[in-house]
Write a structure and sequence with these properties.
By secondary structure, the protein is an alpha/beta fold. It is built from eight helices and five strands; from the N terminus they run H-E-H-H-E-H-H-E-H-H-E-H-E. It has a five-stranded parallel β-sheet with strand order 3-2-1-4-5, with helices on both faces.
């Protein structure tokens, strides 16, 4: 019988480290441009993170960047590439909770940065790999 005294209960919880990727990091990973990612961030991704995710907001920002010609691949292609090559998944945390958290992210007026940061914060202060200085200043578990 599984329960509080089951030795497997704690073992299944230990070691899960959820880490979100900011939009730039997602692009660089998909392009295999590891030289664009800091050593600290790469070390975290390679040795600490066990569950890498992107917020659906990252996919929306990727779509906008593709539409204006800033990136070469559509969001869906980047998502497939990240999933197949790096095991990155799209997080399905509830949108109402994310928006409720984003309402308190008043350090920026960029809706993408606000939602991406709120997504990590709403998921138990998960790690967020980002090159964005403003996010790093505002979010205590940002890595770069």
């Amino acid at each position: 019988m599984e329960g509080r005294d089951d030795p497997g209960v704690g073992a299944r919880l230990v070691g899960v480290v959820i880490t979100y990727l900011d939009t730039n990091v997602a692009v660089w990973l998909a392009q295999k441009s590891m030289d664009r990612i800091s050593t600290v961030a790469l070390d975290h991704l390679r040795h600490t993170a066990t569950d890498c995710r992107v917020s659906p907001t990252v996919l929306l920002e990727l779509a906008f960047l593709y539409e204006i010609g800033r990136i070469l691949l559509p969001a869906a292609d980047i998502q497939r590439k990240l999933g197949a090559e790096a095991g990155v998944t799209v997080c399905d945390l509830g949108f109402p909770l994310i928006v409720e958290t984003a309402l308190r992210e008043n350090w920026t007026h960029d809706p993408f940065d606000r939602l991406i940061t709120a997504h990590a914060r709403a998921n138990s202060l998960a790690w967020l790999v980002t090159s964005d200085r403003r996010i790093r200043e505002a979010y205590p578990r940002a890595i770069w």
